[in-house]
Description:
Layout: E1 2-5, E2 14-17, H1 21-30, E3 37-41, E4 47-52, E5 58-64, E6 74-78, H2 85-95, E7 100-105, H3 118-135, E8 142-143, E9 148-149, E10 161-165, H4 172-178, E11 184-188, H5 196-204, E12 208-210, H6 219-239
Parallel strand pairs: 1-3, 6-7, 6-11, 7-8, 7-9, 10-11, 10-12
Antiparallel strand pairs: 2-5, 3-4, 4-5
Amino acid sequence: xxxxxLTEAPNTLDGPWSPPVELYRHFKALRLDVGQDVLLLLxxxxxxxxxxxxxxxxxxxxxxxxPRLPLMPLTLATAWPKGRRADDLIVRATEAGVERIVPxxxxxxxxxxKPFSKNRLDRWNKLARETCQQCNRxxxxxxxxxxxxLQEIREEAPPAKPLALIPExxxxxxGLTLQPSKEIMLLVGPEGGFSSDxxxxxxxxxxxxxxxxxxxLRIESAGPAAATICQHWFYQLNAS
Length: 240
């Protein structure tokens, strides 16, 4: 069933209701079938089940629970890419089922050293919601408002097992099989990778390292790729 996010709750929970223009455009772009059921996700939690009439009206059918997907609780702590590449990171991380995105400051970080403006945060959160609607995910990731230094990053998700992505490290997929975990925090360094001092700190903290490919991936590719591997492993584990 398709999910759609509402910025304002309808004035009724049942009966005919005309959706906002932006939501109506989504329906037309997705070419929803007449009589197709959808879920309208309310701003403060909960959902309304509805049926699309094919023209310009939804038939609201009352409140219902928001379904949960079988996804691993996964935090992506990542150096921040420059410019519009940050948009790509938000989209890919959302598609990969990342629960929380935390901008991380490293020695070689160029972008994302200061708190983000409200306009940027609003745009990224809107982009995450739109991506959720396209990939059929009923809840968007939480985006931290301010960057966090690498040395403080473990405080962002204390129960999670931290894994630092290093190109030459032991493959991530094999590591998940040998040392499984129910919750993970992925650490992604900036262009040029973690510095020698940071690598020493990572080792001293007992943080495991993991690799993806023999090639070096960009910031906006590495984290979502690793998240996809983690979610695939978690999904297989729970489906078996």
